[in-house]
Amino acid sequence: xxxxxxxxxxxxxxxxxxxxxxxxxxxxxxxxxxxxxxxxxxxxxxxxxxxxxxxxxxxxxxxxxxxxxxxxxxxxxxxxxxxxxxxxxxxxxxxxxxxxxxxxxxxxxxxxxxxxxxxxxxxxxxxxxxxxxxxxxxxxxxxxxxxxxxxxxxxxxxxxxxxxxxxxxxxxxxxxxxxxxxxxxxxxxxxxxxxxxxxxxxxxxxxxxxxxxxxxxxxxxxxxxxxxxxxxxxxxxxxxxxxxxxxxxxxxxxxxx
Amino acid sequence: xxxxxxxxxxxxxxxxxxxxxxxxxxxxxxxxxxxxxxxxxxxxxxxxxxxxxxxxxxxxxxxxxxxxxxxxxxxxxxxxxxxxxxxxxxxxxxxxxxxxxxxxxxxxxxxxxxxxxxxxxxxxxxxxxxxxxxxxxxxxxxxxxxxxxxxxxxxxxxxxxxxxxxxxxxxxxxxxxxxxxxxxxxxxxxxxxxxxxxxxxxxxxxxxxxxxxxxxxxxxxxxxxxxxxxxxxxxxxxxxxxxxxxxxxxxxxxxxxxxxxxxxxxxxxxxxxxxxxxxxxxxxxxxxxxxxxxxxxxxxxxxxxxxxxxxxxxxxxxxxxxxxxxxxxxxxxxxx
Lengths: 257, 336
What we know:
The complex is a heterodimer. Chain A has helices at residues 42-49, 72-78, 95-102, 111-115, 118-137, 153-165, 183-200, 211-217, 235-240, 242-249, 253-256, and strands at residues 4-13, 16-26, 31-35, 57-62, 65-66, 80-82, 171-175, 203-208, 220-225, 228-233. Chain A is of the alpha/beta class. Chain A has a domain at 4-79 and 169-256: Rossmann fold, CATH 3.40.50.300. Chain B is 72% helix and 1% strand. Chain B has 14 helices and 2 strands. Chain B has helices at residues 2-24, 27-52, 60-89, 92-99, 101-122, 127-146, 174-192, 198-205, 207-212, 217-243, 253-266, 271-287, 294-309, 323-328, and strands spanning 157-158, 245-246. In chain B, helix 2 packs antiparallel against helix 12 and helix 7 packs antiparallel against helix 10. The longest helix of chain B is centred in the first third of the chain and has 30 residues, at 60-89. The radius of gyration of chain B is 20 Å and the shape is globular. The interface between A and B is large, with 43 and 34 residues.
């Protein structure tokens, strides 16, 4: 059984069908890509999987449970984490606090925070260590006390990934992680994504426009266009698929050039 | 150990203040100091919603009114008999000290309940819409109370019990009042400055991202609103019991705006900033009394100049906390 099973998923906004009859599977520990031209419905697919939108039709199963229509924080608790296309950090909080917010067992306050018994102190220390550990694994430890929005762009992207990892996910969705990065940063990100999969043993789905980046990294690629899946398979096969070439370059590309 | 010593020293100080201050200061200064305490508590509690959770509420006075009236009604209709009974069995100061927390808790609980009822629908709104809705709810609460005859209606409500006519239900001990304020502010600070309390700030910074990392944003918002209303209720109860008389005019939207000004001027997201602003702005009109009608002009100028020079508020999002207090509070990470 796949970790994530998307079956006949359709999302409509009024008259617009953003995702149509999408079938999509992610196995535990897999590294797959979702690509397609602008407006193909990639981010919408992410938003449905993470609960930002409810599916209009179809089913979403994560780890055997139907998650379609659950609220985002429930889905996060089940083990799905994500990053955003346009970075969404908690800007005025420090890098460390960004991570602490997302840690499992951290994101609710209660009477124990007021009483502050001996167990509370231990708990806080464990959380602090876990957050610092994550920062260190992503090479951000020197920014721990810096405000998130004061970090350089590339490091903000990394911090967002670290924050997503803080919720102990089994599936990590990266929405255009390479957007706005220069070639050397892209290479570093490539290495990082591969390493995260190994070290954390998680499945990763990433969205990107950059076909080259995706082809190099992922073992399986799903191509969307106008909300529909037009191709799926290993990168080499997908790259030669005439439908994919058409979606990216248009039918008359040869003639126009 | 240190914390316990500090607690004992603090209590001793408060008892001393309770006994000594009425002899040292004239009632005018005592009243101002009491009002500062009430303002500080109102500001600190609103800071939780407006400054930390980022939900702009301007109906705080409504919840203070609920606390004031419920506590006053409790004291007048039931508490007076209990207090008389207690005073028969125990020395008077002890009896009063034992009774006093009761109306405060009742006022707080009633306001928290009101906050829950108002918060669930209102917190679905965002930004300006939430502000207008809370303003409306605040006024609804006030006008509803205005029409309840058993708490005096438009005549106002005196803390005089019909069954115990000779009994003074007021509580003017400055030490005790400030103890309540300090305790309440401490609770709010501990809630906010813990890992769990980061959820409040996460909601302020980015609701979608907060949901995505597992923060139940709706619950966090309602929680902030309920806790804030509780302490607004306590502040209202303190006000009622120190003044000995309450009128709905004290809880109009002007009062709400005043508290919002404390919070914004002190710095959204700074408890100590709210305390500072509440203290200064409650004391200023009194200190400037000598200037006659120039007083309010100067007060307004003070506000305008501060907003021009420090648009982020006096303290921004920082906290000014003496290091001994921080150690005593067992703050593990240090407030930002």
